[in-house]
């Protein structure tokens, strides 16, 4: 079940949002009294309740905004119980001081904004002695393994429990709560007004992750990156799963480099069947996998991992999707060397550039790598038998195919371009791997010069569709994925 938290400064705004949520079908709402900036009127807030409610009044040390006395705060909580509120949230250190009364159920909570304690089981055992109907433990995640420890605790408890990790590392515990048997999880009224670190908006939880459809048998897929917030992979993969009525969910996992090995070891217990892999893990992941196809070996980077038959299998769908797009633009697919006699200038030497350089070279192109990191460009050029040049010399190359494999021009820096428009030619095929926005400044200026363009949306959807096939064995609903991506990178929706 999803509990949506409301924190507003005025009674009328809190009540209006509460009623709106109930009208949208939300079954449980948390009202944060510590956000109200004047004397609280419980009778006004609790009158004619449209759905069950949790009353919470959080101290500053527990992540709240209450600035009054502790005596006044506890009196307010007791008054809510007397008014017959459905649930009351009491911190573990005051639970004994606020007795049970009437039908109000007690949520005994523990918050730790510094860490996830080593002995979660011991903490839980102590909280079981505090006359709780529901135990809530919220801690800060510093690494992905904290998520597994928290979800494991929730799965093994006998009493109704809410266990979640805070911060963007901890977001998966909120999405996977139902799979591991949590009593409920929390979302906020709007994703831009989070009340706790790592919290998602209820529309994100319902419209992207379809939270209420997740259960113990749901298969988990996801994307690993650091940072993770920019990724739109969850939007399109979850849309595809939902469209085909698959019992699957796709989750963003922020995985720092130093935690990659442990995370892959944890995937089995988390129920993860497949992963998309992006910055900075495309190269680092290879030594940790057991099988890889020929393209991964040639490129030296993977963007897809499938867990199957005890193996960790690596693939590179960036390569296949990019080559499909370029071959359509070139138009000559009657030979296995369609880029013969063509100069291919690739900007950047990261994971996606590795895939593009490998593919273009195999198709007969003369590959030239320009990067601000010249040693990295030289390493890639040596790998594909191409040539590396200093970044400042990129405009000296008369390219038939120009590929941007850098993040220059990506949202929010949409007024930047990696290539001066003065050097763009109508005869050049210009391919920008940036997909947010679709029409980058490079793409706009290339169109103005009469060049053939390939946008990052085409590649992004193409590689995602190939991943979907590897994950599920079924063809992806391409148009659903394409339209969902375009909506996501258009005006704000969630």
What does this structure look like?
This protein has 494 residues and is α/β, with parallel strands linked by helices. The chain folds into 3 domains: 2-216, Alpha-Beta Barrel (TIM Barrel); 243-315 and 462-488, Leucine Dehydrogenase, chain A, domain 1 (Rossmann fold), CATH 3.40.50.10860; 333-454, NAD(P)-binding Rossmann-like Domain (Rossmann fold, 3-Layer(aba) Sandwich). It is built from 17 helices and 20 strands. The protein has helices at 11-23, 42-46, 70-82, 120-127, 144-156, 171-175, 202-208, 233-243, 260-270, 281-284, 294-299, 317-330, 351-362, 374-384, 441-448, 456-472, 478-488; strands at 2-6, 28-32, 53-56, 87-91, 105-112, 134-140, 161-166, 185-188, 219-225, 248-254, 272-277, 291-292, 304-308, 311-315, 343-347, 366-371, 387-390, 401-404, 429-432, 452-454. The strands form 3 sheets. The chain has an 8-stranded parallel sheet. Helix 2 links the parallel strand 2 and strand 3 (53-56). Helix 12 (317-330) packs across helix 16 (456-472) and helix 13 (351-362) packs parallel to helix 14. The longest helix has 17 residues, at 456-472. The radius of gyration is 26 Å and the shape is elongated. The chain starts with a strand and ends in a 6-residue tail after the last helix. The mean pLDDT is 94.
Lateral strand order in the biggest sheet: 7-6-5-4-3-2-1-8
* Biggest sheet character: 8 strands, parallel
Under the CATH scheme, which architecture of the largest domain would be assigned? Alpha-Beta Barrel
Q: Round the mean pLDDT to the nearest integer and report it.
A: 94
């Amino acid at each position: 079940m999803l509990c949506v938290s409301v924190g507003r400064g005025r009674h009328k705004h809190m009540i209006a949002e509460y009623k709106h949520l109930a009208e949208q079908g939300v079954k449980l709402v948390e009202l944060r009294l510590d956000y109200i900036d004047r004397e609280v009127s419980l009778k006004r807030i609790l009158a004619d309740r449209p759905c069950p409610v949790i009353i919470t009044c959080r101290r500053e040390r527990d992540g709240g905004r209450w600035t009054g006395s502790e005596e006044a705060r506890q009196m307010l909580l007791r008054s809510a119980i007397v008014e017959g509120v459905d649930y009351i949230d009491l911190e573990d250190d005051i639970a004994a001081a606020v007795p049970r009364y009437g039908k109000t159920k007690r949520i005994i909570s523990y918050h730790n904004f510094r860490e996830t304690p080593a002995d979660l089981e011991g903490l839980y055992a102590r909280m079981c002695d505090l006359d709780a109907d529901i135990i809530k433990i919220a801690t800060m995640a510093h690494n992905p393994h904290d998520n597994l420890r928290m979800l494991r605790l929730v799965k093994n408890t006998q009493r109704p429990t809410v266990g979640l990790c805070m911060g963007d590392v901890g977001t998966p515990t909120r999405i996977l709560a139902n799979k591991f048997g949590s009593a409920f999880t929390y979302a906020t009224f709007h994703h831009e007004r989070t009340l706790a670190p790592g919290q998602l908006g209820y529309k994100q939880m319902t419209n992207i992750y379809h939270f209420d459809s997740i259960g113990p048998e749901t298969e988990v897929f996801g994307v690993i990156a650091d940072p993770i917030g920019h990724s739109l992979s969850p939007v399109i993969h979850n849309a595809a799963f939902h469209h085909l009525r698959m019992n699957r969910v796709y989750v963003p996992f922020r995985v720092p480099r130093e935690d990659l090995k442990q995370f892959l070891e944890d995937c089995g217990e988390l129920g993860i069947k497949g992963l998309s892999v992006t910055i900075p893990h495309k190269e680092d992941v290879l030594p940790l996998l057991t099988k890889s196809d020929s393209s991964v070996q040639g490129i030296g980077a993977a963007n897809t991992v499938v867990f199957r038959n005890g193996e960790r299998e690596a693939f590179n769908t960036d390569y296949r999707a990019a080559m499909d797009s370029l071959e359509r633009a070139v138009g000559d697919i009657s030979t296995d060397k369609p880029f013969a006699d063509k100069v291919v200038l690739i900007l950047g030497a990261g994971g996606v550039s590795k895939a593009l350089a490998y593919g273009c070279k195999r198709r007969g192109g003369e590959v030239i790598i320009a990067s601000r990191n010249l040693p990295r460009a030289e390493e890639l050029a040596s790998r594909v038998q191409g040539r590396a040049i200093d970044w400042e010399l990129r405009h000296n190359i008369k390219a038939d195919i120009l590929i941007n494999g850098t993040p220059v021009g990506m949202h929010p820096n949409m007024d930047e371009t990696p290539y001066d428009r003065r050097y763009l030619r109508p005869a050049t095929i210009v391919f920008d791997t940036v997909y947010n926005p679709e029409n980058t400044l490079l793409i706009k200026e290339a169109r103005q010069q009469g060049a053939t363009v390939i946008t990052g949306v085409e590649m992004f959807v193409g590689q995602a569709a190939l991943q979907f096939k590897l994950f599920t064995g079924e063809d992806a609903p391409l148009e659903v994925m394409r339209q969902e991506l375009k909506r996501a990178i258009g005006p704000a929706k969630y």
